[in-house]
Amino acid sequence: MVRNTGVIGAGVMGSGVAQTLAYYGMNVVLIDRSDDALNRARKEIHNNLRMSPLLYPGLEPKDPDEVVSRINFTLDFKALSNSDFIVENVTEKWDIKKPVYETIDPIAPDHCVFAVNTSAISITKVGGITSRPDRVVGMHFMNPVPMKPLVEVIRGYHTSESTLAIAKDFLRSMGKKCVVVQDMPGFVSNRVLMLTVNEAAFLVQDQVSVPADIDRIFKSCFGHKMGPLETIDLIGVDTILFSLEVLYESYNDPKFRPCPLLRKMVDAGLLGRKSGQGFYPYPTLNV
Q: Which overall architecture, per CATH, does domain 4-182 show?
């Protein structure tokens, strides 16, 4: 049974995973590279829980202080030494992810399962640099994590049936269901989604239409709750760019060529909601 969990990366996704685990009563070690990132995550999680009736209708409100008390915010990877399950959420770049697994593999207990929260990077490739490839599984959480009921679970080449069973139980314990897919870059969701959002960025670049009207077409005509450009801002323009680069490199297919506007926005620091400006402006949340 999973009781002690680790979450690596205190950005939007990692904070959402840590918040959800703590909400459902698990002990969480949340790790990042800087105190600033951890302090920001602590404030964001506390504020989200405080405002949960507005942010997460349908979820029972819980005392923010009690939930946050179950999270150990730390820079020290050694705090993962008692973990039963670790969810990694760092940037979608291999040269950043690889050292993380080389660090945690000798620290985590032998029975510990590693879940790679990725939208494009091969689970088999990650498993291959660990001593436990059978206990490495992909978990593509959707944002915002507390609100999304389904997780895309990816079976790597060596992922065992017992690991999949543990992963399903783990997700069930945090109020999630899952769909299991095979390990190909982009899996199901992002192999389709990245084409859509990338083409929407090209529409803006080519001045075919403005962001608000592009998104309005998808919401009004197709019934989408969020337009493709709003989706880019929510996920993060940098994360979208990294995912497209992985898909382009993996398939050598020009259909995944990133829109130059996305790269320009990343260079300018226009990363979406997390920076306060993407295709749309966002107010800075004071917490």
A: 3-Layer(aba) Sandwich (3.40)
